[in-house]
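help with this:

***
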Amino acid sequence: PIFFADLKERVARLKAEHGITPGLATVLVGEDPASQNYVRMKHKDCAEIGLTSIRRDLPASSSLEDVLAVVRELNDHPACTGFIVQQPTGLDEFAILSAVDPDKDVDGLHPVNLGKLVLNVNDEIISPLPCTPRAVIELLELPENGVEPVGRIAGHFPRLQKIRDILDRNMRMTTAAAQAVDKFVAHDRRQPGAEGPGRVPGG
């Protein structure tokens, strides 16, 4: 993929300058073919860009406590800087997501991170962002794609659709603000006595 070269460079720089090797872990419950394929792709990508790859596969018969025990292990795992609990698990999803260390929440679905995302929707977002809608938006914004950042994403998962709507709202508000500034400058230039672009009224 076109963005792998940049990721490789950033990972290499982290290692060289800070002695940090990012580590992605996955937790998979059961044998759902789509989930297995997704997890397999993640670990393949990790190997390609130089990330530590940690995989925890559990049988479909696993209990909620079995999964929570793995979550706690990864929360404390020094080589794991972030992880994903692949859905569906067939268990209490909220309990599982809530048990994930917010700082290691790759999907940005911990209640704390979702709360920050919503509360900071009109400000700089510093909490982990849900990776799927964010990746779609960033790919659409690549100049070589020539595609407007409409934030389109397959709406198979209602939660992801809601997150996409929040991110899309953030982009639309930013765009609207920029357009408002452009209109003001254009109008200002047409006023008698205007000396240059961006003149402040009364200034």
Notes: The longest strand covers residues 23-29.
